[in-house]
Write a structure and sequence with these properties.
This protein has 95 residues and is α/β, with parallel strands linked by helices. The protein has a single domain (5-93), classed as Rossmann fold (3-Layer(aba) Sandwich), CATH 3.40.50. Helix content is 35%, strand content 20%. It has 3 helices and 4 strands; from the N terminus they run βαβαβαβ. α2 links the parallel β2 (32-36) and β3. It is globular, with a radius of gyration of 12 Å.
């Protein structure tokens, strides 16, 4: 099964789009959301909260990482090297 990997490049133009993005990632079986840019730690924490929800659904799981002080290229390199069960495509996402 292909498991895509995303690098979410900040800033986000509208944080209201974050919840829909996370739901799409769960539906697409994304294995990694790496967050890069100013405030990436806070956005990673919010993504984690959106993934876990109320904690009753163990199937809601995506690994997340934040990359403070790193360039987009460095975060992309990290994501491309990420390997879980299958090596899926890596893409940069801007919201």
């Amino acid at each position: 099964m292909v498991e895509p990997k995303f690098v979410l490049a900040l800033p986000i133009s509208d944080e209201a789009t974050l919840a829909a993005f996370v739901e799409q990632c769960i539906t697409r079986n994304v294995s990694l959301i790496a967050v890069q840019g100013e405030g990436c730690e806070r956005i990673e924490d919010e993504i984690d909260r959106l993934i876990v929800g109320d904690g009753t659904d163990d199937a809601r799981f995506i690994t997340t990482s934040s990359h403070p002080g790193e360039t987009l290229e460095e975060a992309l390199e990290f994501a491309m090297a990420w390997w879980v069960n299958a090596d899926g495509p890596t893409e940069v996402v801007r919201l």
